Amino acid sequence: MKKDPIFIAFSTQKGGAGKTTLTVLTASFLHYVKGYNVVVVDCDYPQFSVTDMRERDLRNVERNPYLKKLAFEQFKKISKRAYPILESRPEDAIETVKCLLDTDTPPDFIFFDFPGTVNNHGVINTIATMDYIFCPIAADRVVMESSLTFAGLVNDTLVSTGQSNIKGLYLLWNMVDKREKTDLYDIYEKIAGEMGLTILKNFIPDSKRFRKEGPEDGDKALFRSTLFPPDKLLCRGSNIDALVEEILSLVKAKP
């Protein structure tokens, strides 16, 4: 029996909250490590951040013998090509993936990377078609208040009313500096609870590793890539593996 893909978006109306990085890391971990088939739809019009990242990744593999060898060994091990990245305006995203839904082997997951602003009907209408939305939050008043406004709006107008396909809306602590724990975490977790919003158990720490892309030369480990999973050593302490497992348990996806 053919399964429908699960539509997922890391989404918020605040730019710089880490949604694109989280999209790529999660998609790459699921595709290259966990064995799922993934597609990413880059709706971040007009800059198309994920598409740009894929182009950088391809250039670096072409120029760097270390990455070229890494790509060869990965393909030999998992026999999988890189996941497709499709460009689309937010309002056209569902039409863009229709060709994937009508195949005999549709992907397991389709991730949608939305722009940092959601103040138009096209974006909202597409968000309403998602199965699950994960909203990154950070212990910063501007980011937090913007993210809570977004999550509250989605919850009150789309999830609670049943006027969407959304099965789950979750907040996710991102860029957490464990050395600088403040009472803002407790305050905002209480506020989120009062708004009927759920925060994931696993958080993402603040670390420079999240900016480590494939090197143009040399054999330095990479973390954020559309062609490779996060390096195993760099993955330790990043909570990406734990986050992926929590997401899988929430969406009840089977390999």
Automatic annotation (TrEMBL):
Residues 8-212 form the CobQ/CobB/MinD/ParA nucleotide binding domain. It comes from the Bacteria. Pfam families: CbiA. This is Conjugative transposon protein TraA family protein. It comes from Paraprevotella clara YIT 11840. The lineage of its organism: Bacteria, Pseudomonadati, Bacteroidota, Bacteroidia, Bacteroidales.
